Amino acid sequence: MGAEVIPLVDDVDRLSSETAVLLAELPGMGFSVVATAGSPALMQRTPLASLAGNHGTGLLLGNAPPAAADFFGVRIAAEQAPPPGRAVLIENGRTRSLQIAAPG
To answer: Can you list the positions of beta strands (E) in the chain?
Structure first.
């Protein structure tokens, strides 16, 4: 059994339009793609974003504002001073808090 490859794309909103179109083809070929952007508004400018938004699954890392999950069709609650490594998992219109890393 071979290792699964998951492309990680930082600042997806800064890709050339040609590269963004090619990246959006990867999910149709069976790849999962992890992409970041400076804000959900920037993420929405990419072809991959429409696929992700329609899929309804996402992970918000850090102290995300309530509107950050609007992209996935949900609103999250604000958390006062979350610990490092706090994340919100979004699946099928439901959210849950996760702790993915711990200091020390």
So the answer is: 8-9, 34-35, 57-61, 86-91, 94-99
Separation between Cα atoms, residue 80 and residue 59, nearest integer Å = 19
CA distance 75 to 78: 9
Task: Supply angle C-alpha 36, 89, 96, rounded to 5.
Answer: 150
What is the chain's Cα-based Rg? Answer: 14
Q: Per DSSP, what are the bridge partners of residue 96? A: 89
- Which tens digits make up the pLDDT trace of 21-54? 899 899 889 888 888 877 666 666 778 877 777 7
Task: Say how many residues make up the chain.
Answer: 104
Domain boundaries, the chain: 1-55, 57-104
Q: What is the pTM (predicted TM-score) of this model?
A: 0.70
% helix, strand, coil for the chain, step of 5: 35, 20, 45
